[in-house]
């Protein structure tokens, strides 16, 4: 879908604050409400605007430990990968799962838990019990100086 300047301004505004009313959004981008709403609906229908979510404060919820886990698999078969992906998708602690190249690992997981006990439970009771997992290497996040959810609109 080709995005014009108004579309990009709509997307930037909604990425910054998804709770904007149509009137507030229209005022912010310089359109009247009707064409603004038509553009938002078109962006939704096209799939460019994929949804709306609330961002939660992990620390306020007692989730204080974030880690990245590199996972190595024993076999590189579609069935093995599908099984692994199905299992990690069912783990609430897994924020992201990426099939990667250029590393000794096959997958990179971003996980969040309350503490080291929670991490140990996740690793030993869930992740390492998935058929095909042969290697696990963990890195713990000490600080996140940049953490964006907004995508760049080039």
Q: Please, could you describe this protein's structure?
A:
The structure is a single chain. The protein has 154 residues and is an alpha+beta fold. It folds into 2 domains: 5-46, Winged helix-like DNA-binding domain superfamily/Winged helix DNA-binding domain (Arc Repressor Mutant, subunit A, Orthogonal Bundle); 59-140, Alpha-Beta Plaits, CATH 3.30.70. The chain is built from 5 helices and 4 strands. A hairpin with a 7-residue loop joins strand 2 and strand 3 (107-113). Helix 1 packs across helix 2 (22-29).
How many structural units, i.e. domains?
A: 2
Order of helices and strands: HHHEHEEHE
**DSSP strand tally:** 4
Counting helices, strands and paired strands, the structural category is alpha+beta
Our measurement of the CA-to-CA distance between the termini, rounded to an integer number of angstroms, reads 13 Å
- Would you identify the CATH architecture of the largest domain? 2-Layer Sandwich
Q: Bin the strand percentage.
A: 15-25%
Radius of gyration: 20 Å
Q: How can the largest sheet be summarized?
A: 4 strands, antiparallel
Q: Choose one word for the global shape.
A: elongated
Helix content: 25-40%
CATH class of the largest domain: Alpha Beta
Poorly predicted sequence stretches spanning 5 or more consecutive residues: none
**Tally of contiguous helical segments:** 5
Protein name: Lrp/AsnC family leucine-responsive transcriptional regulator
InterPro entries: ArsR-like_HTH (IPR011991), AsnC-type_HTH_dom (IPR000485), Dimeric_a/b-barrel (IPR011008), Tscrpt_reg_AsnC-like (IPR019888), Tscrpt_reg_AsnC/Lrp_C (IPR019887), Tscrpt_reg_HTH_AsnC-type_CS (IPR019885), WH-like_DNA-bd_sf (IPR036388), WH_DNA-bd_sf (IPR036390)
GO molecular function: sequence-specific DNA binding
Keywords: DNA-binding, Transcription, Transcription regulation
